[in-house]
Design goal:
- The complex is a heterodimer of chains A (114) and B (114).
- In chain A, strands 2, 4, 5, 9, 10 and 11 form a six-stranded mixed β-sheet that branches.
- Chain A is built from no helices and eleven strands.
- The radius of gyration of chain A is 14 Å and the shape is globular.
- Chain A has 114 residues and is an all-beta fold.
- Helices cover 0% and strands 59% of the residues of chain A.
- In chain B, strands 2, 4, 5, 6, 9, 10 and 11 form a seven-stranded mixed β-sheet that branches. Chain B has a four-stranded antiparallel β-sheet with strand order 1-3-8-7, with no helix packed on it.
- The termini of chain B are far apart.
- Chain B contains no helices and eleven strands.
- Classes of the chains: A mainly beta (114), B mainly beta (114).
- Chain A binds chain B through residues 31-32, 34, 36, 41-46, 49, 51, 89, 91, 93, 98-102, 104-107, and chain B through 4, 33, 42-43, 45, 48, 55-56, 58-59, 91, 93, 98-108, 110.
């Protein structure tokens, strides 16, 4: 059974710092891994999608890496801003025949202090 | 496109009442997912549809929960009778493909059962 873990559960940094969020998964047989952002009281917004054949994806100040063999992904945020404050979730899509499911981690709550 | 649209945004009801949550996916997306989010369990997949057909409902907690997708632009999640432990945020999401595509979420329906 696929399990997704995110460390740390919460993180507070001063504005301008670079930071790394971690995601680990137990089963390396995945189709893709996605990073999402969730603001309080809102739905999830997809940030980056990494296919299983890819090593990383970049969008603006965000860079996500994927190491399937070790079951790890990182989300790197450069030059953090207060507007980056949110909960960040990773999710993996595993193999499963007709029961393909996106399994979510519990998230990292990020606070960027001005 | 307006994105995934859910209604109601908030619902407060009494135990034993029927609750119906509604979702309009993004036009052209063949996959629709219902998730439930709680503090204790995080995001859980309840059911997903492909071309209006339920593919995997193994996450539906009990027979009190049912979901339908009568056409490509509308889905409902019904709880009858509702119980206090059903209190959660229910998200609908859609995707153009289940394996390699991004998942787009609605803003969620916050359900409180008293």
């Amino acid at each position: 059974k696929q399990e997704v873990t995110q460390i740390p559960a919460a993180l507070s940094v001063p504005e301008g710092e670079n930071l790394v969020l971690n995601c680990s998964f137990t089963d390396s047989a995945i189709y893709n891994l996605q990073w999402f952002r969730q603001d309080p009281g809102k739905g999830l917004t997809s940030l980056l999608l990494i296919q299983s054949s890819q090593r990383e994806q970049t969008s603006g100040r965000l860079n996500a890496s994927l190491d399937k063999s070790s079951g790890r992904s990182t989300l790197y945020i450069a030059a953090s801003q207060p507007g980056d404050s949110a909960t960040y979730l990773c999710a993996v899509m595993g193999y499963g025949g007709a029961t393909n499911k996106l399994i979510f981690g519990t998230g990292t709550l990020l606070a960027v202090q001005p | 496109d307006a994105g995934v649209i859910q209604s109601p945004r908030h619902e407060v009801t009494e135990m034993g009442q029927e609750v119906t949550l509604r979702c309009k996916p993004i036009s052209g997306h063949d996959y629709l997912f219902w998730y439930r989010q709680t503090m204790m369990r995080g995001l859980e997949l309840l059911i997903y549809f492909n071309n209006n057909v339920p593919i995997d409902d193994s996450g539906m907690p009990e027979d009190r929960f049912s979901a339908k997708m009568p056409n490509a632009s509308f889905s409902t999640l019904k709880i009858q009778p509702s119980e206090p432990r059903d209190s959660a945020v229910y998200f609908c999401a859609s995707s153009s493909t289940v394996l390699t595509g991004e998942l787009f979420f609605g803003e969620g329906s916050r359900l409180t059962v008293l």
